[in-house]
Structure formats: structure tokens, C-alpha cells
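Take a specimen:
=====
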Amino acid sequence: MNKESWKLIDLLTTASDFLAEKEIEYPRRNAEALLGKALAMPRIELYLQHDRPLRQHEINRFREMVKRRINREPLQQILGEVEFLGCRLLTPRGLLVPRPETELLAAQVVKLSQERFGDEETIRILDLGCGTGCLGIALASALPTASVDAVDIDPLAIETTEKNAKLNGVDARLNPIQSDMLEENFIERLSPPYNVVVSNPPYVRVSEFDSLAPEIRHFENPEALIGGENGLKFYRRIARILPTLLIDNGFAALELGSGQAEAVSTLMVEHGMKASVEQDLNGVERMLIALRQSE
């Protein structure tokens, strides 16, 4: 990529080939996204203006972004934002990048909430471990009567959630709370009961961390990933507090790690919940719905 005079399409093609050589997944999609960001141009315009000569400062900006991607920085962090269930979310380095599996979880919660609480004046939602705020913000955006408490121990997560809530116009219905869900007095910081509890908790086993992709190991917060020796530490805590947090016939929706469905279901049942598991688009048991049954 050392040529000094480039047309847009030539630079795009060369960058795509270069990313492929470096074994970056979906190299063309990455090259399009990065060049679009460098030029402040939507994807379709890259092709409508394919013969456009590029200025040197535009080439330099794009080269720097490609270098960051080659170093395995996540694409979403380089772009600084991601779309999640129709919401635009800022994605700073150090927080988990919202993933398609979590987006699927959010869509399922919207569907279930509409079915169970559609006529209620307010749907109270608790987002445990909010990160960028993706779950709570998506739910507040899709459910006009939703009121969300979004909790995280990380100050950066709380700051980012506040920014993303404002960016999507739901800040009046979203309350960020910095707190540690593992502390014994955690519930005292909240205002139960809630209709819905959602969480994508840390669920990676300690032994699995070194095998994760470099994008995850080097650029995302390990505390938001690792769930203890067997990955179940946070599920145990959630199962224990759910009966206190939920209204009768309220439900929790949790993202699961691969192979954890049976163990987490057992935890929920042990604490009086009715548990069911749903698969993601790849057939992996990825979502658990836990229903608090009427006493």
C-alpha cells in the first residue's frame, strides 16, 4: 500500500487483499468499513465514486486504520461505533463489543415483553453488567413504556452507557448505576421488583481465556469476560437474587456460553425459576429464559 496516487476502488481492492493476507476475517467488509470511515462516506458511495482520486491525508488516515486492524484491534473499536438492533452505540476500547448473539437476545426480550406486558403502563427492566448499554438501550428504544436500570462495576461502562442513552434519545428512561452485583448489599442499590432482568454476564472459563481471539484478549476487559474457574460465578449470583428482583411471572433473559445451558438451567430451577433454553442462528444453546412463577 505504498503507492502515492490512488483511485478509490484501487485502494479498496488493495487493502482488501492485504487484510486477507494477514488472515483478517471478512477482509472486503473490513476494508469497506474502514475506508468509509476514513472518507466519512457510506458503503454505497464507495462504489458510486469508485474513480475518485484520493488526497494524501485521506490515504494516510486509511492506512493508519488498516494498521490498527492488522494489529487485531476490533473493527468496531476502530470505527468507534456499532449498530445494535437499530441503535447507534459508541464502542470505546476496553468494553465488550456488542455481538450478534446479544442482539438476538435483545430481540427475543422485546418479543416476550410485548407479549407479557404490552398493556402495562411501565415495563421495568434491569440490565446487569450493561457494558456499552447495548441491551438496556435497545430495549428502551423498542419498548416505549420501558424504564431501565443499567448496572455495571466499570466506570467506563457507566460513562459509555450514559453517552449511548443520550445518543439514542432514551436517557430519560435509563438510569445508570455503578455497583458490583457480587456484593451482599447489591440489591439495596436497586429498586425492585422488575418485570424483566437481562444480562450478558462474564462466562468465559479461566482456562479458556488464552485461546480467545487476539481482538478479545488484547482489547476487551478481562473482568467483563471471565466468569471464574467454570464460568458460572455470575450465573450463581444471578440465580440467587432473581426471586427478589422479579415480579410474579416476570422473567430473566441471559446469554450463555457454549456448553453452559444445562448447568445454568439447573441453577435457575434450584432457586424456584422455570428455565428454558433457546438456540442462536448457529444452533448453539445461547439464550436462557428464566420465569419467576407465581407462588
Observations:
- The radius of gyration is 21 Å.
- The first helix runs from residue 8 to 21.
- The chain has a mean pLDDT of 92.
